[in-house]
Amino acid sequence: MENLWRAATGQDPNPDDYRGVEFWTDPERAGWLTKQGDYIKTWRRRWFVLKQGKLLWFKNPVSVTRGSIPRGVVSVGGCLTVKGAEDVVNKAFAFELSTRDSTMYFVADTEKEKEDWINSIGRSIVQHSRSVTDSEVVDYDSKSR
Questions:
Q1: What is the largest CA-CA distance in the chain?
Q2: What domain range includes position 96?
Q3: What does the pLDDT look like over 100-136, one tens digit per residue?
Q4: Is residue 55 part of a domain?
Q5: What is the domain-level CATH number for residue 90?
Q6: What is the pLDDT of residue 10?
Q7: Residue 142 lies inside a defined structural domain of this protein
Q8: Residue 81 forms part of a structural domain
Q9: Which in 9, 56, 109, 124 has the greatest CB count within 10 A?
């Protein structure tokens, strides 16, 4: 019933948002986070996968297969900041991910997990930012000295 409701209200992500991302294998980071809903501001525990500049979430890790449809996806290249948000949502281990238009809130299970997610998402933002093109990326290790 919930899937029918999500489809009817257009809440499932557009497949183009994650096309070509093999999220079911070798993620950069994966784990449980609690996410605040977009419309109804309840908190729900979801399984998150970070891969190829996409943050995708699923109901649980068992539902992450080749044929899965994520419950949501964010292109982190369009995000501006990821930072702690305990004071904003009044929850321990909270952090926020902000775009130009909106802010999403998440809660990790521990301080270490929160920091690991912030660091991983932050690296992904830098790697996939629209402001950095491939021609601007310099591989300092390959430069002759």
A1: 62
A2: 30-129
A3: 999 999 999 999 999 999 999 999 999 998 654 444 4
A4: yes
A5: 2.30.29.30
A6: 46
A7: no
A8: yes
A9: 56
